[in-house]
Design goal:
Layout: E1 2-4, H1 10-20, E2 28-32, H2 39-43, E3 47-50, H3 56-62, E4 68-72, H4 80-94, E5 98-104, H5 115-130, E6 134-140, H6 147-151, H7 155-158, E7 160-161, H8 174-186, E8 194-197, H9 205-216, E9 222-223, H10 227-236, H11 241-255, H12 265-270, H13 277-285
Parallel strand pairs: 1-2, 1-4, 2-3, 4-5, 5-6, 6-8, 7-9
Helix pairs in contact: 1-8, 3-4, 4-5, 9-13, 10-11
Bound molecules: NADP nicotinamide-adenine-dinucleotide phosphate.
Residues 6, 8-12, 33-34, 37, 52-54, 72-76, 83, 140, 142-143, 146, 174 line the site of NADP nicotinamide-adenine-dinucleotide phosphate.
């Protein structure tokens, strides 16, 4: 039995969808905190086990009879490491054989303006290494799916206005990363490994503007404004201070190339080349 956490979220649900193409629903359990949101999983025949990452007893109960766990990183940023540790401890306690953790593919996290947020992922990796459970880390790069958060859904009218300069990021589609993580659960020989799930090449925002222009037939201009002016613009648009710091932290990391890591891991785990930038943008923007 494979338990997927964060199962009502995008990555967890996509991992379950891929698992369902390979194994029956009676081999899959879903950890979810919201019963109503889990209804579509139940409808697919998946065994929904309710609980929060904060609830160690519920985690242990959910892992009864489970041999493998996909630990999808929590969105609860202040508590992330403790919550992940609860999952690891429950796995140890119940004799889970293999935990696969979805971390983040970033370098020089210490230098990032959002270092605490990023470091929590690496501390979870340390917690896994110190645990008695066999584990695999799949570090996810930035989702192409997250691009509209940064450049807007109205990019065809307003262009791209983001202070990333010529920074490169190997954006990848979330559902393909979910597929790669699910393959780690389905195959043997991944214990003790760390994979960086990144596209086969790294892209500038000029590349993104060009791909969007070609796909849509509408010219999309990329302008990289002064970072301070960009932040002030977010504030005057009513974005709260935490949001400004988070968005500008990710943008700074992209500008300074912290996501610029390219490996073959993603391709190897998928068993094919990941989708191109243009194909992923087509899917994300419905072009
Ligand atoms: N690499 C990137 O570009 C990128 C971009 C965005 C996010 N991420 C990170 O990748 C992870 C997965 O992404 P995603 O798109 O699948 O995120 P998502 O759609 O927001 O899903 C997060 C899942 O975690 C669950 N969850 C959050 N806090 C929980 C708690 N305390 N107890 C139990 N479950 C909890 C959510 O439950 P509910 O459905 O009940 O809320 C949801 O199922 C997230 O941690 C996210 O921060 C990475």
């Amino acid at each position: 039995m494979i338990l997927v956490t964060g199962a009502t979220g995008n990555l967890g649900a996509a991992a379950i969808d891929h698992l369902l193409t390979k194994v029956g629903p009676d081999s899959i359990a879903a950890y979810a905190r919201n019963e109503a949101k889990a209804a579509p999983l139940r409808a697919k025949g998946v065994d929904v086990r309710l609980g929060d990452y904060d609830d160690s007893a519920a985690l242990a109960a959910a892992m009864e009879g489970v041999s493998k766990v996909l630990l999808v990183s929590s969105t609860d940023h202040g508590k992330l490491q403790d919550q992940h540790l609860n999952v690891i401890r429950a796995a140890e306690k119940t004799g889970v054989e293999h935990v696969v953790y979805t971390g983040t593919a970033v370098k020089d996290a210490d230098a990032s303006p959002i270092s605490p947020m990023l470091q929590a992922h690496f501390r979870t990796e340390d917690d896994l290494r110190s645990s008695s459970v066999a584990h695999t880390v799949v570090r996810n790069t930035m989702y192409t799916d997250a691009l509209p958060v940064f450049i807007g859904a109205d990019v065809f009218e307003r262009g791209i206005n983001l202070p990333v300069g010529d920074g490169r990021t190997p954006f990848a589609l979330r559902r393909e990363m979910a597929e790669a993580a699910a393959n780690v659960l389905l195959q043997d020989g991944h214990e003790g490994k760390t994979y960086e799930l990144t596209a086969s090449e790294s892209y500038t925002f000029s590349d993104i503007a060009q791909a969007l222009s070609e796909r849509s037939g509408k010219p999309v201009r990329y302008v990289s404004p002064d970072p301070q002016a960009f932040e002030d613009g977010l504030r005057s648009a009513g974005v709260p201070e935490f949001g400004v710091a988070t968005i500008s932290g990710f943008v700074t990391d992209m500008r300074e190339g912290r996501y610029d890591i390219v490996t073959r891991d993603f391709e190897d785990l998928l068993g094919r080349r990941p989708m191109s930038l243009s194909e992923t943008l087509q899917e994300v923007y419905g072009l």
